[in-house]
Every structure is written in structure tokens, then in C-alpha cells.
Amino acid sequence: MFVLVHEAMIDDALRAVVASLGCELLFSARKYLDVLPKGVGKGATLRKLCAHLEFAHETVVTAGDTMNDLSMFQEGFSSIVVGGAEPALVHAVRDDKGVYLSSGEGCAGIIEGLAHYQFLKSEKPSVVHEEGTSDLVMVYHRLPFDELANGERRKPKSPNGIMPTLLNFFSSGVEGSWVAWSQQSSREPSNFEVHVDVDVEKYPKLKAARIPLLAKDVDLFYKKFSKEAFWPIIFSFPDKAEFKQEHWEHYLEINEIFAKQAALEASKGALVWIHDYNLWMVPAFLRMLRPDLKIAFFHHTTFPPSNIFNIIPWRREIIGSLLQCDYIGFHIPRYVENFVDVVRSYAPTKILSHVPCAPRFMTYGCALGVDLMSDEIEVLGKRVRLGAHPVGIDCAQIDRLLHKTTVRHKIEDIRAQFSGKRAILSLERLDYVKGALEKLLAFETLLEKHPEFVGKLVLLNFVTPAAPGMEVYEALRVEVDTLVGRINGRFSTLDWTPVRYFYRSIPYEEVIAYYAMADVAWITPLRDGLNLVAKEYVATQGHLGGNGALVLSEFAGAAVELHGALLTNPYDAKSMEEVLYLALTLGEDDRTYRMTRMNAIVRSNDVHTWGEGFMRAVIPNRTIT
Q1: Residue 122 pLDDT class (50, 70, 90 cuts)
Q2: What is the residue-averaged pLDDT of the chain?
Q3: How many angstroms separate the CA atoms of 120 and 288, rounded?
Q4: By 3-state DSSP, what share of the chain in percent is helix, strand and coil, each rounded to 5?
Q5: Could you tell me if 536 and 428 are in contact, meaning their C-beta atoms sit under 8 angstroms apart?
Q6: Among 351, 292, 346, residue whose Cα is nearest residue 319
Q7: Which residues pair with 356 in a beta bridge?
Q8: Using CA of residue 241, residue 466, residue 158, residue 368, what is the dihedral sign?
Q9: Taking a C-beta distance cutoff of 8 angstroms, is the pair 306, 341 a contact?
Q10: Helix count (H) and strand count (E) of the chain?
């Protein structure tokens, strides 16, 4: 047994009692008191266990950080003392060639030791001795440009993403690197340029550090494993998750490649900003490779409750990796608290400080609301700071588009086409987390209960196809197609179709035009990390002085931020139908007040504010711009 004690509690009387019992006393780490029978300890027990299970000594690795682990290191096993270990233990084993002293702490130290003993498949070195020249390193799964088959590059198709904001940190001439994959025919292609300029005029000292991956690497790492194992868990659909050990090992391999490239890019003490769940294990490898770096991580999705996250077979490895970060950001406080709960299930956790969530975020009366948010924790002696940073949109870009003659004409054309009819806009990607079926069923119920809307109401249902190769979504598409056909078959007349269904991507300028004319934006995902479509609708309506109504799922992260949205529960068919009816019948003054309030929130917290706020949180009193 062991108990936590103070050193002052150990006196001659206690030692005499222990001796009278035929036991030995071991005090370690200034808090652990072990009382064990003579000759019994971790080392002897492990040796007997290996003999019983017929494990060869050379297949076993021991790891520890306190003196009560010493006996394991004296049995001839390959052994690892992790960084930050008890000084007495380090002193006791420092001359033992069979014990490896890691520089990394916790998970990172164990990974470093496993690499040293060549228990990992990777042939890459466990420590990077070279330092790069980049003071800021972005680690993202995508390059900041699209690569064409002919070798040319172009701006990304998505015009309102976060990439321009992240790139803006390099506009002042800060030395930087953007680490991302580049799909190639070989992992070691001939005449391949790892480093290429992103935009010499705008970002003179920024290089893209391209990692050559095969098409099958991208397919397995991103399209298959990340989407089939992690995506369902992140969005609380565990029944859809598929876990395969060989896929996890491939994921680890790709994450290590990313970490090694980031380590080679970064200057001494540089900031490395890692993005999203595809790269969860990069912090563990990177901390081992470069202990000097400041590591920040941002989750662009939800973060699930502990009872869902802990379904992941490799949850301990993932949390151990994330705890190597100095700062971790999430969209909203609820996701921060979910993460803290997961950490609590991983190891003893101290909440060092917390902050109130109001008035920035809704606290009560909202499914994702919390009143207090932990902003610094300590786990096994490691401090990690946490924060909520909901991503914003580029309001200035929307304003510019609304001034374009072509966009104005498009708005007029759409309004003329639907003259005399109310328009509900639904715009989403094909994904089971978006709640497309629940939405269509609620619309069908609305038409059943309120025949006064027949012929006077149109649902503009835009569904963006999933990326090629995403087989998991094909069945969903068939169900959506069938349900749209059923509704139109039941209610259509010769001159009216209730659901206008578009299964394709549409140009962003056209999206803005539909935002401008829609009476209601109906955004009801079953889960969503945030939802930028809601913000884009608000910014468009706000610019034009419109008073459209926003119906928003209370399980979308934006629900706790957009005071004024009409919240609905997408799992409750009654709520879905009733809140949509409320939006269609809401008085003009109420609509105007709500939209004015939401527009102020969206414009005060745009994407530039998000980026600057995150950077200030990571490095207080310092701005990298």
C-alpha cells in the first residue's frame, strides 16, 4: 500500500513499527510512503509476472519518475526515466547504461524512450538537434494554396475561411513556416521542393514546408481514419465510430512526420500553432523533439463530454499529447469544460483558476451554457492554460461583395423569382451531424399543421456534397433525396414546389445573395463546433438593414454566442416545427431588435479578432503581426 504523507511525519517510531511488521519503508517524491514486505516491490513483482506470462525480458520496457519505481530499473529491463523525475531517482540511475533519461515529461518522455530503444517503427531520429529560423510555425493539414495537377498554385476555393487570418500573422515580415501535406506520387519524390514561397509580396518571409504524402496516406489518415474513428466521437455519434489499430498506427506515423518537420522549421523558443484533431498526437512528438518550443493548439470542432471521448481506445495517448501544449483553445467554454473533465479521468487535476463566462457567452437556458470556465489546470506538475475563442467571419469581405453590381443584380433576380413567397434558407454540408433529415421532417409537419403556408413558403435547401471518397455519407444522400421527393410529391402544385433542393456547391457570391433575400435562416445541426453560416447570414442581413430571423440549433456552438437567435432542439420534432413557425410569424420590431443585436456581436468578434485574441492569450503582452 502507499499513502500521501509529509516528510515530517516519518520518525523513528514509525520506522520501528514498520520494522516490527517485517516490512521496509520507502519515501519518494516527498509525498509517497510505501510500506512493503521485505523483498517485495515493483521490480520483483514484474520479474515474476514476466516469468508467469513467459514474456522475454527484452520485450519489456519500464518507465517511471519516483524512487518507488527504482526496483523496476534494477531488474535488467530496458528502462526509461521521464523528464521532471525525482532527483534522487535520476541520481540513483544516472550511471546505469540500461536506463534512458528522457528530456520530455510524461507521455513525451515515454515516446522518446521507446524511440531510443527502437520499439517504435519509425526510423526517424528521436531528437532534433537542428533549429530552423521560423519564429512562428503553423501546423495545418492543408496548404494555404491549392496545388493543381500541372504544378501551378491558386488561392483556396473557400473565400471566408480562417486561412487569410492565419496568413495575416506573417504580413509584417515575421519569419515563418506553414507545415502541411502535399499529395505526391512518392514519399520521397525526385526534385521535390520542400520549401516554396506562399506569396512573396504579401508574406515576404513565409515559406510553405510541404510534406510529401501518397494519395493512400491522405485517404487513410484524413478521409478514412479521422472521419470514421474520431469524427463520430467528436460529434457524439459513437455508434458510427470504427476503430482499427493499424489505422491508428498510420495516424501516429503521419503525426510524427508533421512534428519532425515542425521541429526542423522552428527557431529557438519559437511558437508552434497546431490545428485540429487530425494532428492530436503532434504535441507529444514535438515536445520530445524540441522541448524549448512554445506549443499552442486550437480545436476547430466540438470537444465531446468525457463519457463519449473516453470511448476512443487511444484516449490516454491523445490526452497525454495535448497536455504537452502550453495553451489549448476551443470555440466555447462548454468545450473547455468537457476537455477538463476528460483530463480529470486521465490523472489528478488541479483547477488553478477560472473565469466567468457571462456576458460574452450565454450561461443558463442554453444546452451548451456554463457559468464558469477553467482557464488554467495543473496535471502531474505540468501547467496548461485554456481558453474559449469562437472563430469569427470576415465581415469586411461580405460588405465588399454586397457592394458589387453583380451581387446586387443577383439579389434582385432571386427576389423577383420568389416574389410573393416567404423563403427559408438551409445551407449545409452533407453530413449526419447536420440533421438534414430532422429538418425536412419538421418542414413536412409545418405544412401539414399550417396549410396557410401552402403555395406561399419555399424551403431553399442547399446541400454541399461530401469530399470524394467519403463513403459513409452516400446512404444519407439517398435518404435526403427520398424525403425531398416525398414532400414535393405530397404538397406541390402546378405553380409551386415547396422544397427547392440543390445538391452541389454554389459560388460564394451566390450564397451571399441568398443570405440577403432569405426571410429565415434555418440552421439546425444535431451537433456543430460553432457554425459560420449563421454568422454570415447575420452579417449580410445586418449590412443591408434586414430583419431576417435566425433559427439555430442549441447544440451549435454559436448558440451560446449569438444572443438573439431563436434556439431549437433538433432532437425534438415539436420544438423544430414550433420554433420555425415562430420565426415565420415573429413581429417586425422583434425581428429587427434580434438581428441588430446579433449583427453587433458578429462584427465585434470577427475572424481577425479571433486570431488576435488567440495569439494574445498564448503570448500575453506580445503581438506577432
Answers
A1: very low
A2: 91
A3: 14
A4: 45, 25, 35
A5: no
A6: 346
A7: 372
A8: negative
A9: yes
A10: 21, 24
Strand partners, 206: 176
- What percent of the chain shows pLDDT beyond 90? 71
Grid coordinates belonging to 255: 503525426
Q: Among the listed ranges 224-228, 252-256, 390-394, which one has the minimum average pLDDT value? A: 224-228
Alpha-carbon separation of residue 404 from 311, 398, 411, 544 (angstroms) = 50, 10, 11, 13
Give the integer Cα–Cα distance in Å for 86 and 64. Answer: 10
> Residue 72 carries which side chain, given as an amino acid letter?
M
Rounded to whole angstroms, the Cα distance separating 366 from 375 reads 21
Round to whole Å and give the CA distance between 357 and 340: 16
Residue 30 CB partners (closer than 8 Å, separation 6+): 7
Residue that the C-alpha cell 495543473 belongs to: 378
pLDDT tens for residues 418-449? 999 999 999 999 999 999 999 999 999 999 99
Is 4 buried (19+), middle (13-18) or exposed (0-12) by CB count in 10 A? exposed
| Mean local confidence (pLDDT), 16-27 | 82
Q: Grid coordinates standing for 491?
A: 404538397
Q: How many CB atoms lie within 10 A of CB 274?
A: 26
Antiparallel, parallel or unpaired: β 349-356 and 23-28:
unpaired
Q: What letters, b where the CB count within 10 A reaches 16 and e where it falls short, cover 232-267?
A: bbbbbbeeebeeeeebbebbbbbbbbbbbbbbbbbb
> Strands 327-330 and 294-298: what pairing?
parallel
C-alpha grid cell, residue 568: 431549437
Instruction: Identify which of 23, 26, 1 has the alpha carbon closest to the alpha carbon of residue 10.
Output: 26
Instruction: Say if CB 215 and CB 303 are below 8 A apart.
Output: no
Count other C-beta atoms under 10 Å from residue 470's C-beta. Answer: 15
CA atoms of 293 and 27, how far apart (whole Å): 34
Task: Map grid coordinates 483547477 to a residue.
Answer: 351
Residues 6 or more apart in contact with residue 477 via CB below 8 angstroms: 430, 463, 465, 503
What's the DSSP call for residue 556?
B
Pairing of strands 23-28, 566-568: unpaired
Model pTM?
0.82
Helix (H) / strand (E) element for 227: namely none
SS3 55: coil
Sign of CA dihedral 599, 600, 602, 606: positive
d(CA 613, CA 276): 18
Burial code (b: 16+ CB inside 10 Å, e: under 16) for 490-500 equals: ebeeeeeebbe
